[in-house]
Design brief:
With 166 residues, this protein is of the alpha+beta class. The protein contains four helices and ten strands. The longest helix is centred in the first third of the chain and has 14 residues. It is globular. 37% of the residues are buried.
């Protein structure tokens, strides 16, 4: 399914991150592009967080953020938009968990569970990643993720090295 979501707006949460070039600028451009799309409005954005790399640790620290969107796009349409934003900002996918200019991931799409090729929502690994949950818990602390609030789930994780930027 792609395109519109029957014109009914859905609350969506996305994560943004990067560790090459100017990640803060790349995230700002990504948010502007999301907001400029006719089917998507940026509702709230977290602070920036400096976070250690996860998975592949021999690379620079990341900057991460989360945003709440309101969208009339269907889940596949929003994924296509996120991937197009990454392409427009010149993201190159070279290695899993490797360095990147920008990453825009759908975390939650309303109350929907979606398991399609290339699209799993809620994001299947967000509950184990403090770098995702720290900014998400800032803007939506009581958002339920598998029956546990984002804030409570974050409190159960190791947050060493995660720094909220002013």
């Amino acid at each position: 399914m792609s395109g519109r979501n029957n014109s009914r707006a859905s609350a969506v949460f996305v994560s943004l991150g990067g560790n090459l070039g100017d990640p803060a600028a790349s995230m700002g451009k990504s948010l502007r592009m999301l907001d400029e799309d006719a089917g998507t409005t940026v509702v709230r954005v977290s602070s920036l967080y400096r976070t250690p790399p996860w998975g592949k640790t021999d690379q620079p620290d990341f900057l991460n953020a989360a945003a709440e969107l309101s969208t009339t796009l269907a889940p596949r349409g929003l994924l296509d938009l996120c991937l197009e934003i990454e392409r427009r900002l010149k993201r190159v996918r070279e290695e899993r968990w490797g360095p990147r200019l920008i990453d825009v991931d759908i975390l939650v799409f309303g109350d929907r569970a979606i398991h399609e090729v290339g699209l799993d929502v809620p994001h299947p690994r967000m509950l184990e990643r403090a770098f995702v949950l720290a900014p998400l818990a800032e803007i939506a602390p009581s958002l339920l993720l598998k029956g546990v609030s984002a804030a409570d789930r974050l409190a159960a994780l190791d947050t060493a090295g995660i720094e909220q930027l002013p």
